[in-house]
Each structure stands twice: as structure tokens, then as C-alpha cells.
Protein 1
Amino acid sequence: MKGRKSIAKRLKITKNGKIMRRQSFRRHLKAGKTSKRLRNLKRIKELTGYYAKKIRKATGTGTRKKSRVKTNK
């Protein structure tokens, strides 16, 4: 299935299937924001829940991979 490139360009999908997004409110009007707030807005956040599920479907990346748990036998 063809994925939506316009969405994929704005997000980063990690090898484990996490969807990472940039935060808003950093483009302009920075004078009214504190240094701490601007610094924290630089951080990349993970998308979770219903919205992440919709994005996965739209970009055609499928479901998130489950991490393997090692067991000692």
C-alpha cells in the first residue's frame, strides 16, 4: 500500500517503531517565552495512543515491534 509521504516527512520512525515528532510553538514570538521553555521545546516527543496508530496506518509502517525479553534457560 502507498504511504503518505507528506506525513512521513514531518515525523521520524525509529527502528523499534516509535513515532517521534517535533514540538510546536518554536517558530516565532520567542521574546515572550522563557529560555527554559524554549530549551524544553527543542526536545523531540514520542507519539502514543490513538493518534500514533492513525499515523502508522497512514504512512504504511504497520504496527510497533515488540521488544524481545531474554530468558535464561
Protein 2
Amino acid sequence: GWLLRALCCAVPRSIRTHCAEPFTAYWTCIDYTGQQELRRCRKQQAAFDSCVLDKLGWVRPELGDLSKVTKVKTDRPLPENAYHSRPRPEPNPPTEGELKPSPFGSRLFFWSW
């Protein structure tokens, strides 16, 4: 809890202290273009990215990197029932005795006249 709270507050603070002007130029460009198109603000994005790289050492991830699946190496054992599947139900028991047709027909079919 406290680590996440400290981290979430430290990132905007470090951007605000080191790269405030390029960040402001970048978000105002995005905000003031009619449909918030990122392609119209590549110049401001490049200035912001270079400032963040030079002063903070952060590299912008390549397009699509954040949507890739990452496998995490762990010491935990695999779960026994990974898909939380239920056991198969018991089959219906065999019917006992003689089955006769219903004297009044089926409930699923009726005459419409």
C-alpha cells in the first residue's frame, strides 16, 4: 500500500520538477487539437521524450510493448485446479419400472384450435 502510494506520487513529481515545460507543451498540444490526435504533436512528444531520457533516464516503450504477455518467473507451485473448473456431474441414474406415455399429452405441445 504505502509503496504504491509513494510511487504514484513520485512519478508526477519527478516529471514536474525535471521536465515541466516540455510536458506542458505536449499535453496542451494534445488537448487543443480538435480530436486529441497524437500524430499532430510528434514534435512536442519528441522534446518531452528526450527531456525524460536525459534527466530521468526513462525510455518510452516501443509501440505494442505494454500489450505483450510477460511470463513471470516465480517459485510458487502451479495451482492444482488452475481454471477453477467444477467436477463433472454424476450421470443420471437408470430409470426404474415401466415408463408409460402421459394420458394428457406433452406440456411442450398443445393444440391451438
Protein 3
Amino acid sequence: MIVHMVLFRMKKDLSRAQIEHVFRSIGALKDKIPGIVSYSWGKYSSPEGLNKGFTHGFCTTFKDAAARDAYLPHPEHKKVVDIVLPTLEGGLDGVVAFDYEA
């Protein structure tokens, strides 16, 4: 399995509804792209203060690397990227993605 972790530095003026729309859009990909096993998201909540300004994140688990590799260029994923990018501080500078095998 591949765990795909993504952190966002979201704009401070976004409403809760706008933030939820972003993460619902990402979560809906589970029903549109094969190979997604699980999805969860949340707001930064650690008392450590090591988030470097990243405010929200999500994890998607894929059944294997091939499923992840099919997801990244998938047209439905591209549509969601177009929803997400305008909500981030600095566009792509406001995102970090990190994948690992589990």
C-alpha cells in the first residue's frame, strides 16, 4: 500500500464551508478513481507547533504504487487540483506531498 500525505497552507480568509468543500472534493475521488483504499483529512491540532504554517492535511491510501501513479494524472484529480490551488497561500508553495510504502 502507498500512503499519500498532503499538507496545505490554506488562506486565512477562507470560510469553514470553503475549506470543507475542498476536502469533500478530494474525498469524492475515492468513488471516481480506482485503487483508493481510504481517505481522511483534518486541521492541524498538535501542541508541538512544528507545522511550519501548514494548517490542514489529508492522507489517501492506495492499494499499490500503480493505483497512485494512475491517480496523479487522472482527469478527475486534475479537476480537484483546480479547486484546491486557489485556496492555498502561495499556490504550489502552499502544499507539501509525501508518499511512503506501508
